[in-house]
Each structure stands twice: as C-alpha cells, then as structure tokens.
Amino acid sequence: MSLAEKRLYYHDSYRTRFTGVVTSCREAGGRWLVRLDQTAFYPTSGGQPYDTGRLGPAQVLDVFVEEGEVVHATDRPLPTGEAVEGEIDWERRHDFMQQHCGQHVLSASFERLYDIDTVGFHLGDEWVTVDLDAELTWDQVAEAERLANQVVWEDRPVYARFVTEEELAVLPLRRPPKVDEDVRVVTIEGFDHNPCGGTHPRRTGEIGLIKVVKMERMRGGTRLTFVCGKRALRVVQARFEAVNELARRLSVSVEDLPAAVEKLSQEAQGAQKRMRVLQDQWLDLRAEALVRRVAPEGGEPPGRPWVCEALEDVDTADSLRGLAQRVAAREDGATVCALAAVTGERVSLVVVSRDPRVDAGAVVRAALEPHAGRGGGNPKQGQGSAPAGPGTDASAVCDTVRRVLASFA
Ligand SMILES: [Zn+2]
Q: Residue 221 in contact with residue 122, Cβ under 8 Å?
C-alpha cells in the first residue's frame, strides 16, 4: 500500500469510521504508540492539529508522523496483528475542516487582491493565525475578509487530489509544494490551487463565516488572528453579549456606546484632576497639623527638629512621600521627617532630611533591615517598605527609626 492509500483522510474528510490492522504497538512514557496498516486519523502536520477519537477500546490521545508513518498515542495497548475499529471525534475534525479551508480562502484572497503570500499558519484550540509577508492596513484586511466571505457564499466546490508531475507543471499553484512526491493539491474551484495534506469540506459554503479578529504587525509582515464556522459564531455571540452588557450598564443604545464612553472618560479625567488638587490641599493641611503638634504655636522653638511619626490616615507611599517633603520644606518644619504608614500588606517608610548629619537613604536601609524590608535613596530622601506582620507595624518601624536616628545625633 502506498503512503497515500494508507491515509484514508486524504481521500475522504468525512470518513469517521474505519477498520485497521495493528502493525505495531509499544509502550512509551505511560502511553502506547500504535501503528495501523491504514488510518483515517489525521496526524499533526501542515499547521493542522491531530484528530482524537478511539481505536477499539483505546482512547486516541495524540496522532503524529514518525519516520513517514502515522503513529497513534493511545491510553492502552492493542494486540498486534488484530483488526480494530477506529472512530474519529467528528466535532473536532469538522471544526478543523472549517478553519483550515477558511485559511485557504483567506490566504488566496490576499494573494488575489494584493499579491501577498502567506508564510505561516497555526490552527490553535481557540484561534487561528496566518502570517502574511507584508505590512497591511486594517482597510486592506477588511477588503480581503469581504472577498473571502464572498467565496464562502458562492459555495464553490472544494476538492483534493494527488497530481502527476505533468499536471503539477501547469497548475497555477499559490505556493510551491513542500514535498517532492505524492503532491496533493486542494482546489477551490475557480479560485485557488494549493498543495496541502489537510482535511477540507466539499464546498466553501460549509466554512460558514470567516471573521478576522486581530491584526498585529511583525517584522515586516502581518499576523492575522481569525475564526471560521462554529468558532466565528461563538466569537460573534460573545462580543455581541459583551457590547450589549456595556450599553445596558451605561443606559444607552449600542449605537451611542462610543459617544457615551468618550463622555465617561472625559468625566473621569476631570474627576482625577479635581482629586489631585484636593489631595494637594489635604497634604498641605496635614503637614501643617504635624508641624503644629511638634512645635505648638507660641511655644518654645522646636525642641525636636527631627520628626518621626506613624500615621493612620495615610494609605499610599505617594501620600506619605508628599507629606514628608512638605514637612521638611516648611521653615517651621522638621529638619528630618520620617513617616511610616501601613500601605496594603506592607509598612512604608519615607525619610526626608535637610540635616547634613543625617543620610536619609542610609536611615531607611538601617531601619528596615531588622523588619526584613528593603529600601534606599540618597542623603536627602529615602523610601522603602517591609512586610506588615507581628512586630512590624507603623509604630514598630518608627521605634526602629528613632534608634537609628539616635546614632546620628
Ligand atoms: Zn492547507
């Protein structure tokens, strides 16, 4: 039997049941590798993944080509020399037929319209991609998508056959064959001839719909992600639901969605701007209160020019830093301001110094080390954090900072 005769899927993509004789079976890594005298199982090749299904009582987990032969990886051994009934998972096979044929139609459309070649094809579990060897615009892609779907609706016949060298010489193939003998050509009548070993439907109408969902530029080329048939319906349904849900939440029609989102984003920007102003004002007031507490108005000049405080009303490192900078910048403020606060699951520490004796970065490093924290900075400003936990809250970190500062006094 020739190679072409042994692979039943070459001749009939719709054949899901067959009988084959086990010619060898050996164990490998907890699976059994089974070869048959003939098979309808498609092995991973040409961008199309393997079929699944069963061989007699065994589940087929993987199918691949090894030394020119189709190998079925199964979950149990099969007796050599005996015939087994094979059955292919039709849902999976048919999905691959829709995607693979859709790829031929789409690639041929790019060739027809723009003379652009397809240099890569990958049929994944969820998405299908083609790599085209030119940089495209989305408008060009949309035009090719229109042509491809036109070819689907024209319901053109699709047939695959092995061709002789003479036929090969005159066929206007879209791409040259990758094999030297047993060249199989898949033809979409009046539209495309392409060498291919994959499984295809009888007519383009069975592809249903071709929908490009993403375009990425890459190294002088373009990668398109697309889906066909049942996958395309699933994707369209999911996106339709998502868009409907957004419109419902914003209480507008789907048509008014872009304008509503634009309005929302402008409102958010305005709110952010106002929030920053309020945050600044709050930090100014908070810094003033802190300084007053250390050196009450009308009292003695500051007895402690160094401030070290654990704060409960600050919850971001940014606010902590803003506050420490303000305290240190004030004429009546502290020459060293160390502030600690719980920020999420960590205790953050900021030290700002305008005292030449105190290196703020060094204080942060020394104070956080016993708390298994990390940080650093320069002589004027340091910042870091330690994981909050037993023995490490804002007050405990402040106590450590005071001990470190005492060594500078
Ligand atoms: Zn193909």
A: no
- Rounded distance between C-alpha atoms, residue 48 and residue 198, angstroms: 7
pLDDT, mean of residues 169-193: 90
Report whether pLDDT(4) > 50. yes
- What number is the average pLDDT over the span 78-88? 97
| Domain chopping of the chain, boundaries | 3-88, 94-247, 276-406
Determine the distance separating the centroid of ligand 1 and the alpha carbon of 267, expressed in angstroms: 51
The neighbouring-strand residues paired with 45 are 48
Domain 94-247 has CATH 3.30.980.10: yes
For residue 35, the cross-strand partners are 24
C-alpha 100 to ligand 1 mean position (Å)? 6
Sign (positive/negative) of CA torsion 357, 284, 320, 402?
A: positive
Assigned fold of 276-406: Diaminopimelate Epimerase; Chain A, domain 1 (3.10.310)
pLDDT in tens, 318-360: 999 999 999 888 887 788 999 999 999 999 999 999 888 899 9
Distance 23 CA to ligand 1 centre (A): 29
Residue whose token pair is 């789907």: 254
How much distance in Å is there from the Cα of 185 to the middle of ligand 1? 9
What confidence score (pLDDT) does residue 1 get? 65
